[in-house]
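pasting for the record
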Amino acid sequence: MPRPARFAHVVLQTFDLKRLVDWYTYVFDLEVYAESPRAVIGSYDEEHHRFAFTQFPGEKVESFFNPLKHVAYAYDTLGDLMAQYKHMKARGYHPVESVNHGPTLSLYYADPDGNGVEFFVDRFATMEESKAFMASPAFQKNLFGYYFDPEKALADFEQGVPAEKVWEYDQEAADRHLEAQKAKAAAAAPTS
């Protein structure tokens, strides 16, 4: 079966087209190529469009459910990821979660409609190294990783701490996170 050549674009539907387009324009430095009262199309790179936004008719219903968890965007370096973190923070946008997953260091945001947007940097130089880590017993035991403090990561990075040290995977932190999640699930489980 042939595989796609590349990831091309995301189309998001919204009840507030202007607000969503403004957010993505700021976050991605989006260049809008086409616009109508019901749709906006744009890109941040060589692709003819990376995003399209369409207007839902009517008012948002409170019970509206958005099944999209997140869309992820990779940065080439920790410096680039930290620059994006500072860019977002300057506008008052803060990560919903900051996670060292093992293969990646990831910052998760919510756009104005609650769609998840992940910005990450790979910790390993090659995809083969990332896949090897993901096949390791440590990762298989805890597929999530653990939360990290992006302010500490930024401060360390700006003080010249090497990227390899800033994003170093802390197995003890991962184990603590896993145990805390197990305890939380046990506490929430119905008792008979």
